[in-house]
C-alpha cells in the first residue's frame, strides 16, 4: 500500500468521523428537545388531571345540592388546554380520558364535556 493510498484512506475516515459527529450532535439536540417536551407534557397531563378531578368533584356537589344547581363556569387556561387537547385528537371526557380519538370521530362525551362550560 503506497503512502498516497493510506493518506487518502485516513482523509476519508476523517470525513466520515466528521459526518458521524455532526449526526450525533443532531440526535443529541433532538433528544434534548424530546426530554423537554416530555417534561412539559407530563406537567400538562398532571394539571389536566387535577382539573378533571376538581370538575368531577364540582359535579358531585352539584348533584347533592339541587338548590345551587347552577354550575360554576368552567373557563380559563384549563378549558383552553382541554379544548386544544381535543383538537389535537385526544379524549378529554371521563370515559376515555387521555386516549387517542380515532380519525375524525367526534366523541359525544368529549363534546358535551367541553360545551358544559
Ligand atoms: Zn371522549
From TrEMBL:
A Gene Ontology cellular-component term? bacterial nucleoid
Which residues does the annotation say bind Zn(2+)? 91, 93, 107, 110
Organism annotation: Halalkalibacter alkaliphilus
Q: Which family does it belong to?
A: Belongs to the YabA family.
* Gene assigned in the entry: yabA
Task: Enumerate composition-biased segments (Basic and acidic residues).
Answer: 53-68
Its name, as the record gives it, is Replication initiation control protein YabA
Q: Does the keyword Kinase apply?
A: no
Q: Molecular function terms in GO for this entry?
A: zinc ion binding
Q: So which domain of life are we looking at?
A: Bacteria
- Coiled-coil residue windows: none
Q: What does this protein do?
A: Involved in control of chromosome replication initiation. Inhibits the cooperative binding of DnaA to the oriC region, thus negatively regulating initiation of chromosome replication. Inhibits the ability of DnaA-ATP to form a helix on DNA; does not disassemble preformed DnaA-DNA helices. Decreases the residence time of DnaA on the chromosome at its binding sites (oriC, replication forks and promoter-binding sites). Tethers DnaA to the replication machinery via the DNA polymerase beta sliding clamp subunit (dnaN).
Q: How is the cofactor bound?
A: Binds 1 zinc ion per subunit.
Q: Which cofactor does it need?
A: Zn(2+)
Which InterPro entries does this one have?
YabA
Q: Name one GO biological process term.
A: DNA replication
> Which keywords does the record carry?
Cytoplasm, DNA replication, DNA replication inhibitor, Metal-binding, Zinc
Under the subunit heading, UniProt states: Homotetramer. Interacts with both DnaA and DnaN, acting as a bridge between these two proteins.
Q: What is its main location?
A: cytoplasm
Q: Where in the cell is it found?
A: Cytoplasm, Nucleoid
Q: Does the keyword Cytoplasm apply?
A: yes
Q: Where is this region: Disordered?
A: 53-74
State the HAMAP family in the record.
YabA (MF_01159)
List, alphabetically, the Pfam families matched.
Answer: YabA
Amino acid at each position: 500500500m503506497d503512502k498516497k493510498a493510506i493518506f487518502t484512506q485516513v482523509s476519508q475516515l476523517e470525513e466520515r468521523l466528521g459526518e458521524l459527529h455532526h449526526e450525533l450532535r443532531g440526535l443529541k439536540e433532538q433528544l434534548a428537545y424530546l426530554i423537554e417536551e416530555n417534561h412539559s407534557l407530563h406537567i400538562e397531563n398532571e394539571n389536566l388531571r387535577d382539573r378533571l378531578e376538581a370538575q368531577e368533584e364540582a359535579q358531585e356537589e352539584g348533584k347533592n345540592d339541587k338548590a345551587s344547581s347552577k354550575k360554576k363556569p368552567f373557563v380559563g387556561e384549563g378549558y383552553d388546554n382541554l379544548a386544544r387537547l381535543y383538537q389535537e385528537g385526544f379524549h378529554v371526557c371521563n370515559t376515555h380520558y387521555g386516549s387517542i380519538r380515532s380519525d375524525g370521530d367526534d366523541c359525544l362525551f368529549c363534546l358535551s364535556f367541553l360545551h358544559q362550560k
